[in-house]
Design a protein that fits this description.
The structure is a single chain. The protein is α+β, with helices and mostly antiparallel strands. It has 13 helices and 16 strands. It has one domain. The strands form seven sheets. Strands 2-6-7 form a three-stranded antiparallel β-sheet, with no helix packed on it. The longest helix has 23 residues. Bound molecules: heme C (2 copies) and calcium ion (3 copies).
């Protein structure tokens, strides 16, 4: 076949396929509900400045408000090595990723993750490490532990450093226009405890934004589980399953909601794990730092209860009460058209527009709110390109190397204002919202193809819509 002919034929095929896949879904967008202007319900904040992610839900008063303020100070606190004259803030390390929560979740927003060009990765990007056990199951790395810590206090060797090299991938939209994605290839260098070994599965994760998390925690388990379709019974190619994880507090199974693989069931457990794994601050929930038996100096420098329960709880209240800013341009005709296309492309199969929070939530401003996170909080197979490893292996509780939790889409458009960048996805590889969509695969393959079949105007409308959320 002549080359041109083959191109025309393949375009034709893609076009037909695209038409089929769009019409096969063809969800019609419902009328816009005016309440959608307030994604966090009555607690929605109106500030759209660089501080937009740092406000408590409006209506937070009294004791809750005071605890929020205390939690805020511990979220921003730079921990120092012990012993020091200030015992309230020492205990850093012995190995760690960063000295404060806010150095990764800067301004309560999201981390950069990756540099523009080949080079060292940003502090806000951390790596979880697993190796294959004898039965094929994945276990924490015997030498480096479950997380890679590139920093250490004086006298203790850090684990090493991480660098990224990019591989360019070219992609053609069906209207012929060309675009380029950068595939990150990670390397571990300056390793202080020997090579990681070929069987190591490294899972890169960037710090996500902190907004609306208490509202996510206040959705009832039943409401999230209702959207599961593990065997794809309705045949739309999208399954989605709940991530049942073991709670370290109750020692029983609970619905995972937080983190890129929904590995943590509550904010308290997520925060305790962050203090321990990321900063080296242990608490009643994580009484020892994560040094392995190969890390002698680390073991010798372990501390005791460096953050007590009441302070851990104040940080948890802080993370529960951070608000979500109001929507922008909701009735702009381009945004409205983008919204229609978003529904048509079946993005809503995973990015569920709204939930109603439970009446049993801890604080009034979290109760009985209609919220608009645009996530089902379920795990989805997102395809090879986003996977942690070529093989499908279970690498975080029940979640596989191919699975990711649908992240909320609220306020992605404000990341630029708050954090000064437009990096998205679990490791920050997408340099724009458009690239984030183009990396979708697996269960989201059809939606991605529908996006690639749009013309330039329609694609821009979808982006306008995402920026308005
Ligand atoms: C080294 C960077 C880094 C530091 C320091 C850090 N985090 Fe995180 N944070 C992350 C990453 C990466 C994730 C995603 C984790 C995952 O997918 O398992 C995360 C996730 C979270 C989440 C869940 C958010 C969501 O949308 O599910 C919360 C809450 C959180 N961190 C709180 C904290 C607190 C509190 C501290 C300080 C004790 C802290 N973090 C320190 C990088 C960091
Ligand atoms: C099968 C479920 C599924 C479908 C369908 C889907 N998404 Fe996603 N989306 C995800 C998951 C899971 C991620 C996170 C992937 C990752 O970080 O590796 C994601 C991430 C994103 C992000 C980046 C979010 C962030 O915080 O970085 C955007 C933007 C996005 N999706 C938009 C869309 C649009 C637009 C569509 C329709 C064309 C769509 N998605 C369809 C599951 C889905
Ligand atoms: Ca410590
Ligand atoms: Ca480690
Ligand atoms: Ca389905």
């Amino acid at each position: 076949m002549l080359e041109l002919e083959s191109i025309i034929k393949s375009r034709f095929f893609v076009l037909i396929f695209g038409l089929i896949s769009v019409s096969a879904f063809g969800n019609v967008a419902p009328a816009i509900d005016p309440s959608e202007e307030y994604p966090a319900g009555s607690g929605t904040t109106s500030d759209l400045s660089v501080q937009a992610f740092s406000h408590p839900l409006s209506g937070t008063r009294g004791e809750a408000r005071r605890t929020f303020t205390v939690g805020n100070s511990f979220f921003n606190l730079a921990w120092v090595a012990s012993p020091s004259s200030t015992t309230t803030r020492d205990g850093l390390g012995p190995i760690y990723n960063a000295v404060s929560c806010s150095s990764c979740h800067f301004k309560d927003g999201r981390g950069l993750g990756l540099p523009e060009n080949d080079g060292p990765t940003d502090t806000s990007l951390l790596f979880r490490l697993r190796v294959k056990g004898l039965g094929g199951e994945l276990l924490p790395h015997p030498v480096y532990g479950g997380q890679f810590q590139p920093q250490a206090v004086i006298g203790v060797p850090a684990e090493g450093q991480t660098v990224v090299k990019y591989e360019k991938i070219q992609l053609h939209y069906n209207d012929g226009s060309l675009t380029e994605l950068l595939r990150p290839l990670y390397e571990f260098i300056k390793l202080n405890f020997g090579v990681l070994g070929p069987d190591t599965v490294a899972s890169p994760r960037v710090a996500p934004q902190m907004i609306g998390l208490g509202l996510v925690e206040a959705i009832s388990e039943a409401d999230i589980v209702r959207n599961e379709d593990p065997l794809d019974a309705d045949g739309d190619g999208i399954s989605g399953r709940a991530h049942w994880v073991t709670s370290t507090v109750t020692n029983s199974k609970a619905l995972g909601r937080f983190g890129w693989k929904a590995g943590k069931p509550t904010l308290l457990e997520q925060n305790a794990a962050a203090f321990s794994g990321d900063i080296g601050i242990n608490s009643p929930l994580h009484p020892i730092e994560e040094c392995t038996s190969f890390q002698e100096a680390c073991l010798k420098n372990q501390g005791q209860e460096e953050i007590p329960m009441d302070r851990l709880k104040s940080v948890t209240t802080y993370t529960q009460l951070l608000s979500v800013p109001a929507r922008r341009d909701m009735y702009n005709p381009n945004v409205v058209k983008g919204r229609e296309t978003f529904y048509k492309m079946n993005c809503i199969a995973c990015h569920t527009p709204s939930f109603r929070t439970d009446s049993a939530a801890v604080v009034d401003v979290l109760k009985n709110q209609t919220i608009y996170p645009y996530s089902d909080f379920l795990l989805h197979d997102m395809g090879t390109d986003l996977a942690d490893h070529k093989e499908i292996l279970t690498n975080e509780e029940e979640a596989t190397t191919y699975e990711w939790r649908t992240p909320p889409l609220w306020e992605l458009g404000l990341v630029k204002t708050v954090n000064g960048h437009t990096r998205y996805l679990h490791d920050g590889r997408a340099r724009s919202l458009e690239e984030a969509i183009l990396w979708h695969g697996g269960e989201a393959q059809k939606s991605k193809e529908s996006f690639m079949n749009l013309n330039k105007n329609q694609r821009e409308e979808v982006i306008f819509f995402l920026q308005s959320l």
